[in-house]
Design a protein that fits this description.
The chain has 4 helices and no strands. The protein is an all-alpha fold and 78 residues long.
């Protein structure tokens, strides 16, 4: 169990490091986490895809703002 937690934390840290090289900059810690999960999802990590969806659903008040700022995250609405 501890190994899984450490692995998850390492994955998030790597995702945040990778996100720092992108032209998209996080405005908050929550957005940084979203960017990390989105990048992992793009690379085929199904758990990251699920977590990305959950985080979007939990933050409904910012949902419209994210849609404006990151239309590539909502490709299915085009």
């Amino acid at each position: 169990m501890i190994a899984k937690s450490l692995l998850a934390a390492a994955g998030i840290a790597v995702a945040m490091f990778v996100a720092s090289d992108l032209p998209v900059y996080a405005q908050s810690a929550a957005e940084a986490e979203l960017i990390g999960f989105h990048q992992l999802c793009d690379k085929g990590d199904r758990r990251a895809c699920v977590r990305f969806g959950i985080l979007i659903g939990e933050n409904r008040e910012r949902h419209a703002e994210w849609r404006r700022m990151h239309p590539e995250w909502f490709w299915w609405d085009r």
